[in-house]
Write a structure and sequence with these properties.
With 178 residues, the chain is an alpha+beta fold. It is built from three helices and seven strands. The protein has one domain. The protein is 15% helix and 34% strand. The N and C termini lie far apart (71 Å).
Length: 178
């Protein structure tokens, strides 16, 4: 059983014309709530992504764009909530899965030009690309794993020289105390 994504906008890869396709997707309240829970945030006020899709070769589609989100998260130092934003550039290639490419008889697999720095393409599943899932992935990657409220610094607590520390038992004895 597969779990449906929290944010899904599936488009047919065949709908991407030679001149490209521009799309903007916006997460609704229930999608933002699901992404809030999935990413352990306080709230997501806005999440939207714009894409320019181009067909770069037969069977290969490139999605370029950007994601913008307004979020409320918890500071790891002070545990106070604070507002911040996420901005991520998106540039991903998609290609049909091997079993999908083999379905039509006599069809040749797509040609994928990869350089050493390119990652392998994401799959086109059942002829569709899920731009919502792609946006959710880049959103999660853009989150700071240790968010700090602006101006909050972590400082070790200061102790007086004469104050007992719970770690004092590990301190070697002072030679002048002998």
């Amino acid at each position: 059983m597969t779990v449906p994504p929290s944010f899904s906008r599936r488009i047919r890869a065949d709908d991407v014309a030679a001149g490209g396709l521009d799309m903007t997707i916006v997460a609704d309240a229930s999608e933002r709530d699901a992404l809030t829970r999935a990413n352990n945030l306080v709230a997501i006020g806005r999440l939207e992504a714009t894409f320019h899709l181009t067909r770069i070769s037969r069977g290969v589609v490139r999605a370029q764009g950007d994601l913008v989100a307004d979020i409320t998260q918890t500071c790891v130092v002070s545990l106070e909530t604070f507002d911040s934003s996420v901005h991520e550039d998106i540039d991903v290639k998609f290609a049909a899965l091997a079993e999908d490419r083999l379905k039509p008889r006599g069809a040749t697999p797509p040609v994928i030009d990869l350089t050493e720095t390119d990652e392998p393409p994401d799959p086109i599943v059942d002829g569709r690309i899920d731009l919502g899932a792609l946006a959710a992935e880049f959103f999660a990657l853009g989150l700071d794993p240790y968010p700090r409220k602006p101006g909050v610094e972590f400082a070790a607590p200061e102790t007086d020289d004469g104050a007992d520390s719970p770690f004092a038992v590990f301190k070697p004895p002072d030679p002048k105390d002998r």
